[in-house]
Amino acid sequence: MPIAIAPRGSELLVRKVAAEEKVKKHLHEMGICEGGKITLISSSGGNVIVVVKEGRVCLDKNLAGKILVA
């Protein structure tokens, strides 16, 4: 499921990042990669805020829709 519709507050496993390679590399550098764990804090209009490692990252709805979690 896309991260924007995942339940808030639960730890999620990133299954797929369906973005172009340049974007995937950037997300990987921030800690968002396939097999990684993230926690959804907030979702509003498709935009999301997630906890990755020990930091928070805000993703717009276009990018958030490309990150599939379980």
N-to-C span: 7 Å
Mean pLDDT: 94
For the record, the count of structural domains works out to: 1
Helix/strand order: EHEEEHE
Protein described:
The protein has 70 residues and is an alpha+beta fold. It has one domain (3-69): Ferrous iron transport protein A (FeoA) (SH3 type barrels), CATH 2.30.30.90. The chain is 20% helix and 41% strand. The chain has 2 helices and 5 strands. It has helices at residues 21-30, 61-64; strands at 11-17, 37-44, 47-52, 55-59, 67-69. A 5-stranded antiparallel β-sheet has the order 4-3-2-1-5. A hairpin with a 2-residue loop joins strand 2 and strand 3.
Key features of this structure:
70 residues, alpha+beta, SH3 type barrels, 5-stranded antiparallel beta sheet
